[in-house]
Amino acid sequence: MSRHIYKSVLKFIIVAPVLLFLAYFTPSSVRYLEGLVPMDICFLPGEKLKLDNTIDASLKLWYRTDVQTCTEWGAPIIWEGMFEPDDYDREHKKNHSSVALTVFAVGRYLDVYLETFLLSAELHFMVALPVTYYVFTDAPAKVPNLQLAEGRRLKVIKVQKHSRWQDVSMIRMKAVANAINDIRHTSSYVFCFDVDQLFVGRFGSEALGESVALLHAYYYHRPRRLFSYDHNPSSTAYMKAGAGDFYYHAAVFGGTWQSVLALTESCYQAILEDKSRGVEALWHDESHLNKYLWLHKPSRVLSPEYCWAPEIGRRGDIRVKRLLWAEKQYDRLRDAP
Fold first, then answer.
1. Count H helices, E strands: the chain?
2. What integer pLDDT is reported at residue 44 of this predicted model?
3. DSSP state of 113
4. What is the model's pLDDT at position 5?
5. Which of 26, 67, 256, 273 places its Cα 20 to 30 Å from the Cα of 61?
6. Are 101 and 133 within 8 A, CB to CB?
7. CA–CA dist 249, 200 (Å, integer)
8. pLDDT digits over 199-232, tens only?
């Protein structure tokens, strides 16, 4: 039996009972059962790994036998235990790497989340490297005045407040693309974050690469046919059955400024095309992000350690939590005056 057939049969044997029980178990039980579904195994020889930088040659792909540590196209999937943090920090310091962090804090999201997000980033995000925070907001005067560490600074960019949160979610693609005209002069890498998150552990230079995507915490154990891609043929985000690689979370994505510029410009143009036809993608900018990253494979994938949802509960393969979803308060925040 070929390796791929064996993997498919094994997944079916394990996944089928889980799916049969979905209607009978509580959500927490279902999430626990999902965690028992095995991920694919990295069969790629180490020398075939696509390196974002020379230090990637030290990645220990075989250290984590419980998870998938590389993609079929040779990108590493970064998990705790695969890398030496100090080695990565030394390499990026030597290369004079610098990082721009972009975050949107519009309306009540600024009041509820921004200060906590920034304070936690000061403790855990790329602490070995120069960082510039780019805060996009409709209320610049309300951005907290924080004491930042040496080599770190904050810039505020005023954006229009939209009446629908979906429009805020999608318009960030245009805003980030425009901001890169400034970012490109000071930062070699860009990371884009949702504001309703909290750093709780190292989110360091091991995450840097040419094009960086994040495995969605809710989908990394699910079979592809259950991914929440857009299946509306009228949308530019449309993905037919069987398409796709992973389901990526739009709460975190990044890469070199050139790569992020290409992604954000492409997604924004796709959004405009949909709007011209009266179409809105299923999950807004996340649907367009997933379509783009299927067509333009990321060079680096982050495990769900880099954005974990506490409500999922304990998972044995999540040995470290680096970024957590904050408590959602959608009724209070979205579409609020």
1. 9, 10
2. 72
3. I
4. 45
5. 256
6. yes
7. 18
8. 999 999 999 999 999 999 999 999 888 999 999 9
Whole-angstrom Cα distance, residue 238 to residue 291? 7
Handedness of CA 99, 251, 53, 190 (dihedral sign): negative
Give the Cα separation of 102 and 159 in Å (integer).
Answer: 13
Residue with tokens 């709460």: 251
Q: What secondary structure letter does DSSP report for 110?
A: I
Query: What pLDDT score does 39 carry?
Result: 81
d(CA 181, CA 178): 6
Calculate helix-pair angle for 285-295, 257-276, nearest 10 degrees: 120
Asked if 134 and 100 touch (Cβ cutoff 8 Å), the reply is: yes
Residue 134, classified by CB atoms within 10 Å of its CB into exposed (0-12), middle (13-18) or buried (19+), is buried
Is this model's pTM higher than 0.90 or not?
Answer: no
* CB distance 140 to 158 below 8 Å: yes
Model confidence at 36, in pLDDT bands (50, 70, 90)? Answer: low
Q: Report helix, strand and coil shares of the chain as percent, to nearest 5.
A: 40, 15, 45
State both tokens at 214. Answer: 């994040």
For residues 134 and 136, give the distance between their C-alpha atoms in angstroms, rounded to a whole number: 6
